[in-house]
Amino acid sequence: MSATNAQWMSELPPKLWDIPLHHLSIPGSHDTMTYCLNKKSPISQNQSKLLQVLNKVIPCITRPVVLKWSTTQALNINEQLDAGIRYFDLRIAHMIDGSEKNLHFVHLIYTTALVEDTLTDISEWLQNHPKEVVILACRNFEGMTNELHQYLVTCIKNIFGKTLCPRGELLTLKQLWRHGYRVIVSYEDEFTVHRHKELWPGIPYWWGNKVKTDDLICYLESMKESGRPDELFVAGINLTENFQYVLAHPSASLKKMTLPNLPYLNAWVRKQCPGPGTKCTNIIAGDFIGSDSFVSDVIALNQKLLID
């Protein structure tokens, strides 16, 4: 894993500094925090009752299976930032038996990392990379009460302070730098968003829910045909297992399913073009982002904006 993309935004050609963020090509990580899932964690409350029963009856079998199909990233948050990731898919939850104010991340099971600690890590990294801008997509909110939403927003404001970009017109890099804005927080809870000007509405995510690469690419192409949103949005190149696939491949994992398909997915990535056109892409998010040239390929798409 290389840190050569750690300052890619500030290293873009100056002509691109005047292009709105939703017309640039930005690399993202799908289910960002799954590198630190807790082997001893309970199964998420949102999962099926069957899975929760199996976890109680035969945890020695259920837990390892769930873990290997829940893990979508190998790099930690600082390594992802160094690699050039600028969109982070943060699934936030409060465990039923968890302490009152400890919020975790979740994907089938919960993480060891706490939300407040992770946001602090991101803030500290940004202090050392003054021209990089990150997009934090806060989602899921399993087990969250209004009080916990208020607690989370207070944490976000305290940690990022004046670097939070208030919602409104999407700015260019040059405008963001001028105002000192470094962080865009999208928040998939409308009631909370309306109460806080620092929060942006949820960012659309094109999730194909496909096992096969060809099917996923067909889905993404069909979404492009329908036209891109005139806002930040994500095209997810992440494959998704289903119950039948897991049963048919007992020794497999999400990583074993994903890695052989990355060359085909990245071939699709390299054909994309950012910009305002209806078939243009913006944020592209993937799994196991340090395994190949994915991040560099997404960043390189910005060069197409220089062609008149």
TrEMBL record:
GO molecular function: phosphoric diester hydrolase activity
Protein name: Phosphatidylinositol specific phospholipase C X domain containing 1
Organism: Vombatus ursinus (Common wombat)
Gene3D superfamilies: Phosphatidylinositol (PI) phosphodiesterase
Domain Phosphatidylinositol-specific phospholipase C X: 18-188
PANTHER family for this protein: PI-PLC X DOMAIN-CONTAINING PROTEIN 1, PTHR13593
SMART domains found in the cross-reference section: PLCXc
Entries under Pfam families matching the protein: PI-PLC_X
Gene: PLCXD1
Example of a GO biological process term: lipid metabolic process
Coiled coil: none
InterPro entries linked: PI-PLC_domain (IPR051057), PLC-like_Pdiesterase_TIM-brl (IPR017946), PLCXD1/2/3 (IPR042158), PLipase_C_PInositol-sp_X_dom (IPR000909)
